[in-house]
Write a structure and sequence with these properties.
heterodimer, A: 396 residues, Rossmann fold, eight-stranded mixed sheet, two-stranded antiparallel sheet, 11 helices, 35% helix, globular, B: 219 residues, alpha/beta, seven-stranded mixed sheet
């Protein structure tokens, strides 16, 4: 296994994809995953992390779905970057998703690059990474793969599924695909479908990757190149959409970076430029460019209405799941209107739904940040659901 | 900490029953059968929903104010942020056994449309409101020459969210227009107590500070 280091070269990234720093569930080609693309995919592997203890009744499991550029390392130190997990504010002992009460499981999504089958994984037929020969996958495929993992772990039903952004899409898809296996769903900053604007942003990101000469038609592993510049540009563009104008102004304004005057060059004069460049550089150290293509595509294809005769409510008709939908005032990537559309559909389907909009200037990424109102709502919703599910109350 | 609502639209100093619950809410809750599916429109900080929950009712809420919603959800109640005037049309017919509008009617832009939606969504509607026909209010308008200001109606005219006050008499007329059948009507006196005596409507309209109506769809 690869040693933790700040930078992964191509070989390290391949190792992390095949032999990750996480438990891995492997399914042989005899037990394939049926994909929306009509392909039976196998062998399949799913890497995952767990926190807390599964109770004797196996009734306290919460599946956390990670976002596009997240991974299964929710609260442990990240094995590649050495940084804390991405949701330490929300998950952990005494946190709203309390690992002293709940058994938290987070799988790396199908198509990811941290140990679940994806374009960086080795294709057993060639011994080389799949690259663009990996089948195009959907959020529904990700959730199917997660259900296979839970079957194997002996978890018949989840107490809750929670996640922000693409993780929220997974929460909704879980409730739609396996209503009887999900007691409560918590989609945060999500939508019933990816909007035209969001598909457009994703396309810009993908084109940036594919325009990098080092991308080599997706065969960069075989050719020993690394499309870092393209992926970094994609990340920089996307990162802007995760923030807000107000947050950028608050954090950076028009301040200069380590200088008092403009240099009349294309250096990173402004702090905001320097910040974005840093975001791009650190991202490519841990993420696979092809994975970025596949996961953005999966989000683009997400459309619950299209899967249910054009009516989102049909996805949840008769669902026993209780929902808590949360949005943020300054989120322009998944604006409150998108969450309202979820609520509208759930109401029409007669589902038990709560919906709260949280006032913040931090944009889409607010779900990852310190938002006390978000924590109070998630805690309260899960407390109420735990009571209804007959789980013991929190220890004082 | 979440900010607490300063007060409801009315009822700043409402009378409370033996269990600590507001009397008007107890009257409403007593009209609801155990195990019923209930939608509380304008549920505030969720006090009625909590009361109903202790009685085995499957309750949902809609609330306009963000603080109210977030407080409710943090308490584990199923409440969505929404507007009675615009969002009731999202709900399918007969989705609930009871749709409750507690102390909110007078703050809606279109009380008649709201009432009609309530009767469509629920088998029963329960509406409680401050009675603008009460003698104190009549006196304040007639002899004080100013908009009424009471402990139940604490806002000044220029900042009140209450834009459509009505009397018990007015409301009965609205019921007729909206196709609602009156199944039960209760008036509460100035001390928040239920007026038990069988009295003519004009008496209730003069001495009832608040009214609670249980309605169903006619025909």
């Amino acid at each position: 296994m690869a040693e933790a280091s700040a930078t992964l070269d191509l070989a390290d990234r391949r190792r992390e994809a095949d032999e990750p720093h996480s438990p891995v569930m492997r399914f042989s080609a005899n037990n394939p995953l049926r994909l929306d693309a009509g392909i039976d995919f196998g062998p399949l592997q799913i890497a995952y992390q767990t926190y807390g203890v599964l109770n004797a009744e196996r009734s306290n499991a919460i599946l956390v779905g990670h976002a596009l550029t997240g991974d299964q390392h929710v609260i442990n130190t990240h094995p590649v970057t050495g940084k804390p997990g991405w949701w330490v504010t929300m998950v952990g002992p005494g946190r709203p998703i309390d690992t002293e009460r709940y058994f938290v499981i987070c799988p790396n999504v199908l198509g990811g690059c941290m140990g679940s089958s994806g374009p960086a994984s080795t294709n057993p037929d060639t011994g080389l990474p799949w690259g663009l020969d990996f089948p195009v996958i959907t959020v529904r495929d990700m959730v199917r793969a997660q259900a296979m993992l839970l079957d194997y772990l002996g978890i018949a039903s989840l107490f809750a599924v929670a996640g922000g952004s693409m993780g929220g899409m997974q929460a909704l898809q879980w409730a739609a695909s396996y209503p009887r296996r999900v007691f409560a769903a918590l989609p945060i900053g999500a939508a019933t479908r990816h909007s035209a604007q969001n598909i457009a942003f994703h396309e810009v990101g993908r084109q940036a990757v594919m325009a990098d000469p080092d991308w080599r038609g997706g065969r960069y592993f075989a050719e020993g190149t690394d499309p870092r510049r393209g992926l970094a540009v994609a990340r920089m563009g996307a990162h802007i959409t995760y923030l807000s104008d107000a947050a950028l102004h608050r954090k950076f304004g028009r301040r200069f970076q380590d200088r008092d005057n403009p240099t009349f060059s294309f250096d990173a004069d402004f702090q905001v430029e320097s910040y974005l460049r840093h975001q791009g550089i650190t991202f490519v150290e841990r993420f696979d460019a092809n994975s970025y293509l596949y996961l953005t595509r999966a989000m683009d294809y997400f459309d619950l209405a299209a899967d249910h005769d054009g009516v989102v409510a049909n996805a949840f008709r008769g669902a026993p799941t209780r929902f808590c939908v949360i949005s943020f005032t300054s989120d322009w990537l998944f604006p409150t209107a998108e969450s309202r559309a979820i609520v509208h559909a759930l109401n029409a389907a007669g589902a038990r739904v709560s919906f709260a909009e949280i006032t913040t200037d931090k944009g889409h990424d607010a779900f990852l940040l310190d938002e006390p109102e978000l924590f109070a709502i998630v805690r309260g919703f899960l407390d109420g659901a735990a009571k209804a599910r007959g789980l013991p109350p929190a220890r004082k | 900490m979440l900010t607490r609502l300063k007060h409801d639209l009315t009822m700043a100093e409402a009378a409370r029953g033996p269990g600590g619950s507001r009397v008007d809410l107890l009257v409403v809750a007593n009209m609801v059968q155990r195990g019923a599916r209930v939608l509380d429109v304008g549920c505030g900080d969720g006090e009625l929903l909590r009361l109903l929950e202790t009685r085995g009712v499957d309750g949902r809420g809609i609330e306009l104010s963000r603080e109210g919603v977030n407080e409710c959800v943090a308490k584990g109640l199923a409440v969505v942020q929404g507007d009675a005037d615009t969002d009731l049309e999202d709900y399918p017919d007969d989705a609930f056994d009871f749709v409750i509008l507690s102390q909110t009617l007078q703050a809606t832009r279109q009380p008649r449309v709201v009432l009609e939606h309530m009767l469509r969504i629920g088998r029963h509607a329960i509406v409680s409101f401050p009675n603008f026909g009460h003698w104190k209010i009549r006196l304040q308008v007639a002899f004080g020459g100013h908009m009424p200001h009471t402990k139940n109606l604490p806002y000044a005219w220029y900042e009140t969210p209450n834009i459509h006050f009505c009397s018990i008499k007015d409301f009965r007329q609205l019921c007729k227009f909206a196709g609602a059948k009156m199944e039960q009507a209760v008036a509460l006196n100035a001390w928040g107590r239920r007026m038990r005596l069988r009295m003519p409507w004009w008496f209730w309209n003069l001495f009832g500070e608040q009214a609670v109506f249980l309605l169903s769809r006619r025909g």
